[in-house]
Amino acid sequence: MKQKTKWMKVTEEESELLAAIRNYNKSFPDGYPELLWFAQQLFDNMIRQPY
User: Fold this and answer.
1) What is the pLDDT along the chain (51 residues), one digit of tens a residue?
2) What is the Cα–Cα distance from 23 to 34, expressed in whole angstroms?
3) Closest to 21 in 3D by CA, of 37, 6, 8
4) CB 15 within 8 A of CB 26
5) Are 36 and 24 in contact (CB under 8 A)?
6) CA–CA separation, 11 vs 30, rounded Å?
7) What is the pTM of this model?
8) Is residue 11 left, alpha or beta, with left meaning phi > 0 and alpha meaning psi from -120 to 50?
9) 45 by DSSP, 3-state: which?
10) Long-range contacts, stretch 40-44, CB < 8 angstroms, 24+ apart
């Protein structure tokens, strides 16, 4: 099934996160824990956390 694509402007950080997620998905099922860790770190740095 072909997925629809959507164009939108993203920041450089968001683009890096998307690339990290795609790289992790490409490595699955062999998996590279470092790729998952990297994507999670990028995400954690981007979200607003309550103080």
Assistant:
1) 688 888 999 999 999 999 999 999 999 777 788 899 999 999 999 998 776
2) 11
3) 37
4) no
5) yes
6) 30
7) 0.76
8) beta
9) helix
10) 42/13, 42/16, 42/17, 43/17
